[in-house]
Every structure is written in structure tokens, then in C-alpha cells.
Structures
1.
Amino acid sequence: MSARTVAAGDTLELRYALRPRGGDDIISNFEDTEAETVTLGDGTLAPMLEQWLIDLVPGERHVFLLDPWQAFGASQPELIQTMPRTDLPPDMEFAVDQLVEFAMPNGQTLAGRILEIGDDVMKVDFNHPLADLSIEFEVEIVRIL
């Protein structure tokens, strides 16, 4: 009898790391006491990462080398926005390269990296921070729940 493999919609315990190819970990839970529990399709992991988990066998460790188009895509110039400072909380301190969460009218939040700060406007990049990068996605499925 063959081992059950990961399928869409499964809830998994997994360990994973993301890093620019050849670089340091941006995120990793390999050193954590407990593995992270995620349900495929619930938005915890990006869909482009979830697809690499399908058909994996619990207990195996894999490293996927992803080109930008397989991971977080290319930067989109239209996602760099110039915003009036009056649209931002007046009591909040901002710095170049700071990642800030912005509230959307629908109640969701969107993260943006501050590129420039002027007296009246601020330039913010809403592209994914890993856009344009080749990524190493290391993963171990601990078990399928």
C-alpha cells in the first residue's frame, strides 16, 4: 500500500522556509518546537507555493528552486503609488523601506513598502516584497491531518 500524498484542500502540519535563491531565510519554522498547521486553499500560504505541495509524501523534505514567475511574479509598475500624506494617520511615524499595512475600504489590509517620503506625498510599493526574486522554497510535510 502506498503512502497517502498531499491533495488540494488537505490540512497539513508542515515545516517550511522561504529565501532568495542562495540567500538567508526570510521566513522559516524549521527551528520551531511545533510544525505549522495549514489548510490548502485557506490563504495561509500563497497559491503559487501551495501547488508545489500537491502529491508530496509526509516525512520527505524538498527544496524547490523557483524562478520569479513560479513564485511571486514580476513587479508591476502600476502597484507603485504616490499617496497624499493626508490619507495617512497624522500621528504615525514613517521611514523609507518600512513595511506598512494599509486599510482598504472593504476592511482588508494591504502591505506596502515605503520608497520615498516627501512633505506632502509618499511613494509606496504594493508589489509583493519577494516579487522579481528567484526563490528557494524548502518544505517538509510532517503529516496530513
2.
Amino acid sequence: MIMKILTFPDPRLREVSKPVTEFGPHLQKLADDMIETMYDAHGIGLAAPQVGELIRMVVIDTRPRDDKGRRYKDEDMTEMEKAVQQPLILINPEIVKGEGKTTFDEGCLSVPGYFETVERNLVVELKAFDVNGKEFRVKSDGLLGICMQHELDHLEGTLFIDHLSFVKSNKIKSQIKKHGYPPKQKEEEGDKEKSSDSKKLEV
């Protein structure tokens, strides 16, 4: 089922999500719906609060797709990324360790049409639970590492624009509140642009 993705300034995006305490089929159903919604929106990550579910859960899939929707080439993937089975379902995820620094031009399905450079850890290690309540760990760098950090921010009510300077962040927020979001490009034009620019992704 395709779910509605909330966009800034919806106040639910600013809520701190609650930990998941009950595991089972209902979480698998939500995860399946979130993954379907993420793919439909041409995203590579989606957090539960972005679809109005204020729980600590995210889904991620940064793997290359077909030629039409491709945004990240096989040869651009790091060895760490290739070792992680995706799509990822992370429940109650926590960052265990972060190493180094890197920057990336990030966008967000909840702030569509805007991209800005954000500083993140180069390598990040998480611990999380699967839909059955089993704990596991995942470690990555590259696009997957960036995406994991971006999605965990959503669980704290933080958007990527909050990582920008006060002036730049306020400018974007004011533009959105005053003028709304830029119109979406035609499907084929959007796919072409995303395919040609692997450093500018909505995560």
C-alpha cells in the first residue's frame, strides 16, 4: 500500500518517535508498505514518522536499480555497502560508533526539491532490531552510511535542513512556508536527472 509522505512544515515531522515495544506481523506489514512507498517515490530511505507513524523504525535501500531509475552505479558502491543485505528494516536503531567526516548533497522526500551539502560521519555502525525482535548490527560507509544517519535523524524530529547554517536553513524554511514546493518534473525528466547526478539524492 502506498502511504502519504508528510512534508515540512507538518508538525509530526518534529516529534520524537517512541521505541517499538511489540514485534510481530503488524511491523512486517508496515515495513512492506513503507518500502513500497519509498520505491514509488524514488527514494532510498524512509522513516516511519515521514508516513505519520511515530515509532522508531526506518527502511533503506540504496542499491542500484534499473537504468531508468538508476542513481548509484555498481562501481560506486564500497565493499562495506556491498556486504549489507538490502532492503534494510531497522527498528529502534542506535548509532554505536561513528568515524571520520564526509559531506554529501542531501535531499529529503519530506522536503522535496531542495538539496544542500550536509556533513556526516564517514563510517557509521548501528545496532537495531528486525521485525521479529532479533538484535543485529550493521556497519557501512558510502551512500548507505549517509542514508542511515539521515533516516535516524527523522526519529528525533530532525530534518537535513537543520544541519545547515541558521541563515541558509531559515531561508529554505521561509521559502517553503511562503511559496510551497517547486512543481514536480515530468517522470522521465526526473529519472534522467537523478540518473545523471549520483551525488544529489533524496534520502
3.
Amino acid sequence: MSLTIADLEQLQSEHPEWRMELVEGNIIVMGPSDYESEEITTRLTTFLNNWVMSRKLGRVTGSSAGFILPSMEEGDSEKRNLRAPDVSFVRADRLKKSKRDFVELVPDLVVEVKSKSDRIKPLEEKIQLFLQLGSTVGILVDPDKLTVTVYRLNQAPVVLHNGDTLTLPDVLPGWELAISELWPPEFE
């Protein structure tokens, strides 16, 4: 049985404590992240949001913001996916006002942070789906390898390490982040 966004909304109203996505007609219940992965996600969200908010460039959201994606099959609105990247950015001119609902658009930037239980391949596939549907940039943060991989449609991925700087001139001109700033600090 293939489920729809309406089915997901019904299940969400019955279980508001669950984080869910709709993928190819199947509802996926998302487990919580490990502490370090969530801290990295929060750090990246903070760095992005500080830049975006002060310049009124758009909206930065976390893993609970659902995006209704267009169907990959022409004219089949029943087969739409609802996905929620760990971090996303939407330019101001594409979403002038927030909505109290899922939004029907593809974010300009999507970020996935690998948690302890995640496998890399499904995260890469999720990023590729967003890119195929119109996202400009996808980022995969891997705390296990201390790498940040930047994806763009029809381009080879770029892998960044400590000592490198993340820039996104095609989405956020002028913004820079030292990769080493993503990793949680160690306190004495």
C-alpha cells in the first residue's frame, strides 16, 4: 500500500512526538541523533543563521522542517515525497513568508549530518534527490571522518577536511566557515 502526504499528516497528528518522512509511499520514522551529531548540526545551523538573518537573505531551518517535493514522475502528485534535511536554506525571494505547514518547494541548500547509526549511501541518495529536484548545493558532514563533502548537480563532489574553508558562493556569497569550527570543542 502506497501512503500519501495526507496519511503522513494523519499519523503525525496521532503521534506528534515522532519525526517522519514520506519516501516513495513509505513512512520512515526518524530516530534521534547521537549527541555529537546534533551538536554539529546546531553549530552549522548557528553559523548559517547568523549570516543569513543579519543580511535578511532567507530562512534556515533544522531537521523538523518538512519539504513536499515534486514528483519525479510527471503528473503524479500522489507520489510526492516529504523530506526533512538536517539543515536547509531557502532564499528570501523563494519563500517570502513562513507557513504553518509543510512547504511545497525544494530548498536551495540541504545538509545532512551523519549520525552514529546512519549509513553514508542513503544520505548521499537523499542529497542527490534534492539536487535533481532543484537544490543548488548539498552538503554531507561526516563526524567519523571529520570531513565535509559538497555536492552540486553534475559535478564531482568536493571533500573538505580540517584546515579547509567551506564557501558557498552560488548560494551564500561571502559566507565562509572553517571546517574545524564544526567539530564540538573539548573543555578542560
